[in-house]
Amino acid sequence: MKLPGKIPVMLLADSILFPQAFLPLYIYEEHYRLLLRHALDSHRLFAIALPRRRKPIPYPIGCLGLIRACVDHPDGTSHLVLQGLCRIRFTAFHTHHPYLTANYTLHNTHPCDPHPLLDRLAKDIQETIRHITTHHSEFPSWIAPYIGSLTEHDMLCDIVAHTFIQSLSVKRKIIQEQFLPERLRLVRDALNHLAEHI
Fold first, then answer.
1. Using CA atoms, how far apart are residues 35 and 29, in angstroms rounded to an integer?
2. How far from chain centre, in Å, is Cα 22?
3. What is the pLDDT of residue 107?
């Protein structure tokens, strides 16, 4: 897929989108209705960014998302499902539209050679997920086997962070982190904290 050089940006104060994760959204504000129409009429892409408190621009790392499904309602609102594609770093923001737009670069994971440490961290994460889902009925029965089947450490981190971690400050650290071992540690430590309090 060829990515556009400038994209619409939606600011969400209570959600962070991760690559490969799915985010349901209800669009009702007029400027975001316009953003959605633009995206649907062109590349079906827009970014999710976390706003800063008392500052006009969001945090510099966000996620580019693809509209996978969208249902329009007679009152002009819409329900949609956005799939995260990749981490991005915003390089410039533009406010001449009714909604925010931005230039960006890809915020890729740093290359990392296979190492037993990565496998140990991934195994710790998967075992903690099994423990959490066994003791917490909120999660469906298929989620632990699915997490256990993931072999790509990148995807494991992002799916687990999106699904299980509630703290926005921890999620922000995970979405920003480019070094995979440190990203795995952040996810593992957040899960251990969650497991201790269920």
1. 10
2. 8
3. 96
E strands in the chain: 6-11, 22-27, 45-49, 61-72, 78-94, 100-106
Alpha-carbon Rg for the chain, nearest whole angstrom, is 18
The pLDDT value given to residue 57 = 85
Tokens of 60: 């510099």
Find the mean pLDDT for residues 17-22: 97
- Structure token digits, residue 191: 């899960």
Handedness of CA 152, 154, 155, 157 (dihedral sign): positive
Closest-CA residue to 144 (of 154, 116, 156): 156
188/76 Cα distance (integer angstroms): 42
Strand partners, 102: 7, 93
> What mean pLDDT is predicted for residues 140-161?
94
CA torsion sign for 54, 58, 60, 61 is: positive
3-state secondary structure of 108: coil
